[in-house]
Design goal:
about 475 residues, Arc Repressor Mutant, subunit A, three-stranded antiparallel β-sheet, 16 helices, about 40% helix, about 20% strand
C-alpha cells in the first residue's frame, strides 16, 4: 500500500462572554436550574417577541475574526438553518450561512520548532441549541432523553478550518493556540469541560502525493484536548486498516467513546443534509463600516505569537520558555510584572515555570488567583541573587508565600532563614565537620571525589541548610587541598 496522508479539518464552537442571549434578554449564566433561563423568544413559542440582535456578541465575533487574521465582511446577514431535532425548539437555528463574519484567516502553531499556518475557512455567529441528557449518557442505547433549553439562544461562534491539519498532534496544538488567542481577547473562557468550547473533527486519509481528498468521517463528543487527540488517532488507525484490507471508508458521523477509546457509527453522511437555508426575515442585513471595525481592532491586545517572539527578542528567553509563559495573558502579564521588581528574565522564567506553576497546578488555580503578588516574587528572587537566602530555602519560603500571601522578607526574618555567608563562621563549622569525619577526609585525599559531596552535606546539616553552598564548596576545597 502506498504512503498515506492524514487530512483533518476542525469545526470549533465557542460560547461568547455575553450576559444575555443572542436574540433575547435571558441570562447566559452557567449552571442554573434546567429550563430556568428561557422565554417565549428563545423557546420559539407563539407570542414571543421578535429577535433583537445582541450588539456585544457581534463585536466579539468581529474581534475574534480579526485576531484570527480574517477578512471582515462589509455586510452580514442572518439566515435560518432548518432542521428538526429535540434540542432545537424553533425547528430552525439562526446562523450565518450566506455571509459569514470573517473568512480567509489563519492560526500559527509551533510544530517541532517550525511555524505552520492552519487556514481558517470562516468564522460566523449563530445561536446555540439546547442540551440533551441521555439515560446512561449514551444516545445510541438510551431509553429516554431530557432536554435543558437554558443554552438555547446563547451566542456562539463557529470557527471552521481549512483541511490543513495533518495529524492528531497538529489538531491538539491548533486547539490550544486557538483557546489561548480567544482567552487573550477575553471573549470566552473556552472551558471544554463545561461545553463553552466544543470541537468536531472531519478526518480522512489520502495518497500523500495526491490532491483528491478521501472519504471523510465526522467525529463528535470530544470534550477535551486529550479526547480530540485520541479520537483522531483512533480514527486514522481505523481508516488505515479499512483501506489496507481493500475496503472503502464509509462517510458517516461517528461518536467518540471516551471510556472504550473507540469511535462508533452514529449516522450516514452519504447524502448531504439539506438545511433549506434562507435569510431570516426578522433580522435585516447589518453593515460593518471600516471605522467600526478599526475601533474594535484597537482593543485587541498583543497576541500570544507576537508576545512570544518579543520575549525571545527582548528578554533573551529560549523559545520553549517564551511559549510556556505566553500560553495565557494572565501568566505573561504576571511574568512581565515580576521583571519590574527584579530584572533577571531567565531567573524569573525558571522560578515561574518550575516552582510557581507546580504549586498552581497542584492547587487547581489560575495565576490570577495566586496569593503571591509579582512584587513579592521579585523580592524573593532578589534575595536569592543577593545571597541572602539559598535556592533551597527559597523554595520553602515560596510554599509559605503561596499558602499565606505573606511577604518573603517577613517569612525569612521570622524563621531566621538568612543564609550564612560569613567566611569566619563557615570556616569554624567546616573545621568541626572535617574533625568529626576523618574517614571522608582520607577518602578525598585518596582520590575519591564523592567524599566532597558528603562533607558539603554535613556542613549544610550543621547549619540547617542555611550555609551558602557556593562558599561552602570553595572553603572546603581550600582546606582539603591545602
Amino acid at each position: 500500500m502506498q504512503n498515506m496522508e492524514t487530512v483533518v479539518g476542525l469545526e470549533v464552537h465557542v460560547e461568547l462572554f455575553t450576559t444575555t442571549k443572542l436574540f433575547c434578554g435571558c441570562s447566559t449564566a452557567f449552571g442554573a436550574e434546567p429550563n430556568s433561563q428561557v422565554c417565549p423568544t428563545c423557546l420559539g413559542l407563539p407570542g414571543g417577541t421578535l429577535p433583537r440582535l445582541n450588539q456585544r456578541a457581534v463585536e466579539y465575533t468581529i474581534e475574534a475574526a480579526l485576531a484570527l487574521n480574517c477578512r471582515i465582511a462589509e455586510k452580514i446577514t442572518f439566515d435560518r438553518k432548518n432542521y428538526f431535532y429535540a434540542d432545537l425548539p424553533k425547528g430552525y437555528q439562526i446562523s450565518q450561512f450566506f455571509s459569514p463574519m470573517g473568512t480567509g484567516g489563519y492560526v500559527e502553531i509551533n510544530l517541532d520548532g517550525k511555524i505552520k499556518k492552519i487556514g481558517i475557512h470562516q468564522i460566523h455567529l449563530e445561536e446555540d441549541t439546547g442540551k440533551l441528557f441521555h439515560a446512561g449518557d449514551d444516545i445510541l442505547t438510551s431509553a429516554y432523553s431530557r432536554v435543558d433549553f437554558n443554552r438555547a439562544g446563547v451566542p456562539l461562534i463557529e470557527i471552521v478550518t481549512e483541511p490543513d491539519i495533518r495529524s492528531a498532534e497538529e489538531a491538539r496544538l491548533f486547539l490550544q493556540r486557538l483557546r489561548s488567542i480567544l482567552r487573550y481577547i477575553d471573549i470566552s473562557d473556552c472551558k471544554m469541560e463545561e461545553g463553552s468550547m466544543r470541537c468536531d473533527a472531519n478526518v480522512s486519509i489520502r495518497a500523500a502525493e495526491g490532491s483528491a481528498l478521501g472519504d471523510k468521517t465526522e467525529l463528535k463528543n470530544m470534550n477535551s484536548f486529550r479526547s480530540v487527540y485520541k479520537g483522531i488517532e483512533y480514527e486514522v488507525e481505523r481508516q488505515s486498516g479499512v483501506l489496507k484490507e481493500g475496503g472503502k471508508v464509509i462517510p458517516e458521523t461517528r461518536h467518540w467513546d471516551e471510556s472504550k477509546g473507540i469511535t462508533t457509527a452514529m449516522r450516514s453522511k452519504f447524502v448531504s443534509a439539506d438545511y433549506r437555508c434562507f435569510p431570516d426575515p426578522n433580522l435585516p442585513p447589518l453593515e460593518t463600516p471600516a471605522e467600526w471595525v478599526e475601533k474594535i481592532k484597537e482593543k485587541i491586545p498583543e497576541l500570544p505569537s507576537s508576545r512570544s517572539r518579543r520575549f525571545i527578542d527582548d528578554y533573551g528567553l529560549p523559545p520553549y520558555d517564551a511559549e510556556v509563559l505566553t500560553v495565557s495573558r494572565g501568566l505573561a502579564d504576571y511574568y512581565e510584572s515580576v521583571l519590574r521588581y527584579h530584572r533577571d528574565p531567565k531567573a524569573a522564567s525558571n522560578w515561574i515555570m518550575s516552582e510557581l506553576l507546580r504549586l498552581l497546578n497542584a492547587a487547581g488555580l489560575e495565576v490570577d488567583e495566586c496569593k503571591i503578588q509579582p512584587e513579592a516574587l521579585g523580592k524573593l528572587l532578589k534575595m536569592i541573587g543577593d545571597e541572602v537566602i539559598s535556592g533551597k530555602i527559597a523554595k520553602t519560603v515560596l510554599e509559605e508565600m503561596f499558602a499565606s500571601g505573606e511577604d518573603p522578607e517577613a517569612i525569612v526574618e521570622r524563621k531566621g532563614l538568612v543564609q550564612i555567608s560569613d567566611e569566619s563562621a563557615l570556616e569554624e563549622i567546616i573545621s568541626r565537620v572535617l574533625e568529626n569525619n576523618p574517614k571522608s577526609v582520607e577518602d578525598y585525599n585518596q582520590g575519591k571525589k564523592k567524599a566532597m559531596g558528603f562533607l558539603v552535606g554535613q556542613v549544610m546539616k550543621e547549619t540547617g541548610g542555611k550555609a551558602n553552598p557556593q562558599k561552602v564548596n570553595e572553603l572546603l576545597k581550600e582546606k582539603l587541598d591545602g
